[in-house]
Design brief:
This protein is of the alpha/beta class. It is built from 18 helices and 22 strands. Bound molecules: adenosine-5'-triphosphate and magnesium ion. Adenosine-5'-triphosphate binds next to strand 2, helix 1 and helix 15.
Length: about 500
């Protein structure tokens, strides 16, 4: 058997009102990929933050490379060789790629920063990993997937012997995932230990050697990956069997609710036209970067449109800002929850009520707290947001529960069109089904649902009609029950021939 390099025993950790970890055991061996699995809020990130010195444990023992540590701080953990890629991107958005990679361990000489050296080093690491990014670029200008690759490069540049990846692929394209897995297999061959947290269970088959499953802050089981089926893993995670992964409801198709005509907004949104009818969910499929997010942003009034028309119930509506859109009854749950979807420093209550002040204020614009509480309680209950109370900062919720708050604020108002951009990213299997059921509920109420997703099985399983985009244009419209993954992929890669 391979050497045990990390052994955590009986770890406990409480936050106000929550016992996040309750006597949890965890073990990692050299040269293995250990998948750490569990529902949203199970305690995975907390356990790994303890191992990397971000949080201190309340009790329990930690042993790394044969040495016991009573307390660890991030610097110490890094010195021992523990690197963590956090679930929520942790970059300084205004700094360059190189500055981010060397943050806290800058290369200096004669009391000055040696930017050139750092850029050279960063470039070397990025090249080794096959990542095509200019180290001088400002991180905030990069798309989420590229930022995630920088985060990975940064962790690797520290020369870690224990690498923790908390949901590394949630925003990566298929090619980037292939690259990442190649890197993981290489690190494994070098004898490094890798902890891999993911809600994308299918991808585990490609890399996981063992799994540790947690539920509600407790340790459930550790096993060789091949000893368990995916259904067994899910059952251990949620404590029950999930019968239908993609619940579908059939509704009669009613009248046209929403229409977009010849919408243009920059290179990524070119001549987009589509309609959504009562009783249907329209899915947007395509590769990352196809222009789907840009299309939703142009519709919602975040980005300016160059031309095009938007109609609600056959009447044109003018949308120049998100406020116009919300007033008209068109809402968007955006892709990047931390940047666009949530105010992480505000409470769950404030996040849920902010766009709904019109619903909870009296005529003097004063918030009526009973109304506010009722609205929040309803969303917390309907979406099963896991929190001791609604006054907790949204940023302290587990990743998946943050996503539920983003969705929840829009469900609180009676909208005519709800656009979901990657709503299930980072959400566990059980909660995914809850989100699908919610979309189905909206569909039953005659609300037009637009659903952008990069997960092929979920668009095919949930949407009624699928619109495929490639390079800023619509390349096909298909009925979900008549199409195949192959057909969608062909349409999604139907690039214009260059002259
Ligand atoms: N800083 C904090 N303050 C208060 N509560 C916290 C804090 N960090 C985590 N928690 C709580 O601890 C519990 C475990 O959260 P954790 O983030 O570890 O879950 P997770 O398994 O990583 O979930 P996910 O899959 O959604 O990322 C949750 O109930 C969460 O709200
Ligand atoms: Mg987490």
């Amino acid at each position: 058997m391979k050497d045990v390099i990390v052994s955590m025993e009986k770890i406990c950790k409480s936050f106000p009102g929550v016992k996040a970890l309750d006597n949890v055991n965890f073990e990692l061996r050299a040269g293995e990929v250990m998948a750490l699995l569990g529902e949203n809020g199970a305690g995975k990130s907390t356990l790994m933050k303890i191992l990397s010195g971000v949080y201190t444990k309340d009790s329990g023992t930690i042993n790394i490379f044969g040495q016991s540590y009573d307390s660890l701080d991030p610097k110490q953990a890094q010195k021992v060789g523990v690197a963590i890629i956090h679930q929520e991107l942790n970059m300084c958005r205004h700094l360059s790629v190189a500055e981010n990679m060397f943050l806290g361990r800058e290369i200096c000489g004669n009391g000055m920063l040696k930017n050139g050296r750092m850029e050279e080093e960063a470039s070397k690491i990025l090249n080794e990993l096959g990542i095509d990014i200019d180290p001088r670029q400002t991180v905030g200008d990069l798309p989420v997937s590229k930022q995630q690759m920088v985060e990975i490069a940064k962790a690797l540049s520290i020369n870690a012997r224990i690498l923790i990846m908390d949901e590394p692929t949630s925003a990566l394209t298929a090619k980037e995932i292939d690259d990442l897995f190649r890197i993981i297999l290489k690190l494994k061959a070098e004898g490094k230990g890798i902890v891999y947290i993911s809600h994308r269970l299918e991808e585990l088959q490609r890399i996981a050697d063992r799994v540790t499953i947690m539920r509600d802050g407790q340790y459930i089981i550790s096993k060789d990956f091949t000893e368990l089926t995916l259904d067994q893993i899910i059952a251990y995670m949620v404590g029950r069997e999930i019968k239908e992964k993609f619940p579908r409801v059939d509704c009669p198709k009613g009248k046209k609710v929403f229409e977009v005509k010849n919408l243009n907004a920059g290179r990524q949104v070119r001549d987009i036209s589509f309609s959504v009818y009562e009783g249907e969910i329209v899915g947007f499929a395509g590769l990352m970067g196809a222009g789907r997010t840009e299309t939703t942003r142009a519709i919602f009034g975040v980005d300016p449109k160059t031309s095009g028309e938007i109609l609600l119930d056959d009447k044109p509506v003018k949308i120049q800002s998100p406020i116009d859109a919300i007033k008209a009854g068109i809402v968007l749950a955006p892709e990047d929850r931390k940047k666009d979807g949530l105010c992480t420093k505000l409470s769950i209550r404030d996040n849920l009520t902010l766009p709904n002040l019109d619903l909870v204020c009296n005529k003097f614009q004063v918030v009526i707290s009973e109304k506010e509480k009722a609205l929040c309680d309803k969303e917390v209950k309907d979406l099963k947001i896991k929190t001791p109370n609604i006054n907790i900062d949204a940023g302290n919720l587990s990743g998946g529960n943050q996503q539920k708050v983003v969705v929840g604020k829009w469900l609180a108002r009676n909208s005519r069109v709800v656009i979901f951009d990657e709503p299930t990213r980072g959400i566990d299997v059980g909660a995914k089904v809850e989100i699908y059921n919610l979309m189905n509920e909206l569909k039953k109420q005659g609300i037009a649902v637009v659903f952008v997703s990069s997960e092929m099985p979920e668009v095919m399983g949930i949407a009624d009609r699928i619109i495929v985009m490639c390079d800023g244009k619509i390349t096909g419209k298909v009925m979900a029950h008549e199409t195949s993954q192959n057909e969608i992929l062909t349409l999604a890669t139907n690039f214009e021939k260059k002259q």
